[in-house]
Amino acid sequence: MPHAEKGMAVGLFGGSFNPPHRGHALVAEIAMRRMRLDQLWWIVTPGNPLKASSELAPLSERLELSETIARDPRIKVTAFEARHNIRYTADTLELIKTRNPGVDFVWIMGADNLRDFHHWQRWRQIALTFPIAVIDRPGSTLSFLSSVVAKTFDYARIDEADAPRLARMKAPAWTFIHGPRSSLSSTAIRNGSKGKAPPA
Question: How far apart are CA 86 and CA 95, in angstroms?
Answer without folding.
Answer: 10
